[in-house]
Amino acid sequence: MGTRYEDQPPEHWAGPESLDPTPVWKQFMLVGLFLLGMLGVILVIGYLSLAPQLATPPALVVGNRLVLSVSDAPAPNAAPRRVAPPLVPGEDAFWLVQPAPGEFVAVRARWSADHAAPECPVDSPAPVRVGGPSGSLPPFASSDCRSTQAAARVFLFGPRGEPLSAPRALDRYLVSMDGDRLIVNLSRVIEGLGRASPSPAR
Predict the structure, then answer these.
(1) pLDDT number for residue 129
(2) Residue 47 near residue 107, CB atoms below 8 Å
(3) d(Cα 24, Cα 44) in Å, to the nearest integer?
(4) Which end of the chain offers a freer environment for a tag, N or C, measured as fewer CB atoms within 10 Å?
């Protein structure tokens, strides 16, 4: 059997429909739909990234991000400010504090000693002083709400949510600063770690 086209038997020949290309208008339509889809994706991504800049503080924007003005935050080393409903849902309530100039921390208003335990409210300031009656009041405290005793144990925390007398730190939200705006990402929880163990004596 030869290798030339005319040497092939008729049953191996391609039919006339194989010579009919896809119409040009269909090709343009497919390319146009693809470009429109890409443009839609770009617009959605652009809106999501610009939403905190377009909103007027205070506002809860798409992505569960809370936009606040820097002027709404407490002054450095001042008492924390509680952010709660109706601005944010009750389960997302938090305390906003500025432990140092330009450093903003958002700690959740609920805390548990371990992840299996029920969450207890976080109060500010703490009702117990550090170092006795003449000591300072820590900015945060949480009682052991599992306790059935009249005087439940009180856990104390520092200005960044670090544990002073608690098994682990307070949970925090990611906070970023953009010009004169604070953006608190309520969908991003930074779980509090346990207290560091003291180094063994050498």
Answers:
(1) 73
(2) no
(3) 31
(4) C
What count of residues does the chain have? 202
Question: What residues does each domain of the chain span?
Answer: 59-190
Q: What is the distance between the alpha carbons of residues 26 and 107, in angstroms, rounded to a whole number? A: 56
CA distance 33 to 116: 50
Query: What's at 182, amino acid-wise?
Result: L
Q: Look up the CATH superfamily of 59-190.
A: Rieske [2Fe-2S] iron-sulphur domain (2.102.10.10)
User: Phi, psi (5° rounding) for residue 199?
Assistant: -70, 140
What's residue 10's pLDDT?
Answer: 64
Q: DSSP secondary structure string, 54-86?
A: HSPSSEEETTTEEEEEGGGSPPTTSPPEEE-TT
Q: Which two tokens stand for residue 98?
A: 């500025």
Half-sphere CA count of 71, side-chain side, radius 13 A: 3
Residue 104 near residue 96 (C-beta atoms within 8 A): yes
The whole-number mean pLDDT for each consecutive block of 10 residues of the chain, a chain of 202 residues, reads 59 61 73 83 68 79 89 91 93 94 94 83 83 72 69 84 91 91 91 60 38
